[in-house]
Write a structure and sequence with these properties.
The chain is mainly β. It has helices at about 5, 105-110, 250-255; strands spanning about 30-35, 45-50, 55-65, 70-75, 80-85, 90-95, 100-105, 115-120, 130-135, 140-145, 155-160, 165-170, 175-180, 200-205, 210-215, 220-230, 240-245, 260-265, 265-270, 280-285, 290-295, 300-305, 315, 325, 335-340, 345, 355, 365, 370-374.
């Protein structure tokens, strides 16, 4: 494998803002991740991976066996993880920094009809956990309002749509929810795609009331994953929304956009540049004000920046490029960690590219989170 297969040259990014090169040395990245073995029938695990840039190796800090496939991960203050089962999710669990399961929620014991949709976020005051959910009987999207410590549901709000997926907090602590809009059977099979109704909503953190709802012109563009352009989030932050096209016609899917951006109160598609498949798998903040998007089908991670809003720049070209996490690295940040079929790729505007192979045959799942750097 040559270097060009790992990272493309940054010549196409010459018009983007320059970053400072002065930085302390960063030796390790500590990552919360989920994975299985190389075969689809292999069991799933969640745990901590330690990427050492000096030794060019990845070690598994701990690995927790999971009931079924996971999806979203949230870092815990003690270094542990909160792991949410993939849609229709029947479980959620909490593990500590030693890899011990300290709490597990069984959705069947809580409700016969409501299941998790794979993502969660902690409230601004740190007391509550919000989870995206679906009532399998009615198909309506729900937000589970839960006690963060016990995981017990204390309230349930409407998402004012169907197929809610990821949710984040805005600068006021209100919820921003991506309603994917895809009708699904209780077994998670898509159907009646002509009835799709994707939307982005803002929900009042105090009472669950709908504050605002946005839609794109094309109802076949499912809004899935979310990322703010910078943290801490303020009123000037862009919200990036990863799109997955659901057109019946393959040609329409292949030419569909993969990014929407919320700028203030305006939702738009800034560029028609895409991945050739119309499928953005993950999104994270990158390059100080922009976003990185992954497409596992195309084997691509691409960069969007408001300085060149009509462009997507290839930064990683490797098969199964999927899970993304922002990586500070040297300088003033802006880097990205990308999980691929071959290993972890780091990209940074001021740091040398690196590819670290997985410590054993394993397939990383859709998302991961940066826990710490050393």
């Amino acid at each position: 494998m040559n270097r060009r297969q790992i990272l493309l040259a940054l010549a196409g990014m010459a018009t983007l803002p320059k970053l400072s090169l002065a930085a302390p040395a960063i030796h390790q990245a500590i990552i919360g991740a989920a994975w299985r073995g190389p075969n689809k029938s292999d069991p799933y695990f969640a745990g901590m991976l330690r990427a050492d840039w000096d030794s060019k190796k990845i070690d598994i800090g701990y690995a927790v066996p999971l009931p079924t496939r996971p999806h979203g991960l949230l870092p815990e203050p003690d270094g542990g993880l909160l792991v949410v089962g993939a849609r229709p999710g029947g479980w959620m669990l909490r593990c500590d920094v030693d890899g011990k399961i300290v709490q597990q929620l069984d959705m069947a014991e809580e409700s016969a009809s409501v299941r998790l949709n794979g993502h969660a976020v902690v409230s601004a005051n740190g007391n509550l956990l919000y989870t995206t959910e679906t009532n399998l009987t009615t198909g309506q999207g729900k937000i589970g309002v839960r006690d963060l410590k016990t995981l017990k549901k204390v309230a349930e709000w409407e998402t004012h749509g169907i197929d809610p997926h990821q949710l984040l907090l805005d600068h006021q602590g209100n919820l921003i929810v991506a309603n994917g809009g895809v009708p699904r059977t209780p077994a998670d099979k898509k159907y009646d795609l002509h009835r799709m109704d994707p939307s982005l909503v803002r929900i009042d953190q105090r009472n669950g009331q709908l504050l605002r709802q946005w839609r794109l012109d094309d109802p076949r563009l499912s809004l899935r994953h979310l990322a703010w352009s910078h943290t801490p989030v303020d009123a000037d932050a862009y919200l990036g929304i990863a799109i997955q096209a659901e057109h019946d016609d393959a040609g329409k899917r292949s030419s569909a956009p993969i990014l929407a951006v919320l700028d203030g109160d305006e939702l738009s598609v800034p560029t028609r540049a895409n991945d050739g498949f119309g499928y953005a798998g993950d999104i994270t903040a990158a390059y100080n004000g922009g976003f990185a998007l992954s497409s596992n089908q195309a084997g691509l991670a691409q960069l969007w920046h408001p300085a060149t809003p009509d462009k997507l720049t290839h930064i990683v070209e490797l098969e199964e490029a999927y899970a993304l996490a922002g990586w500070n690295g040297p300088g003033k940040g802006g880097g990205v960690l990308v999980a691929t079929g071959l290993g972890l790729v780091r990209w940074h505007p001021t740091a040398k590219a690196a590819l670290l192979p997985w410590p054993k045959p394993m397939a990383l799942d859709n998302h991961w989170v940066l826990l710490n750097e050393a």
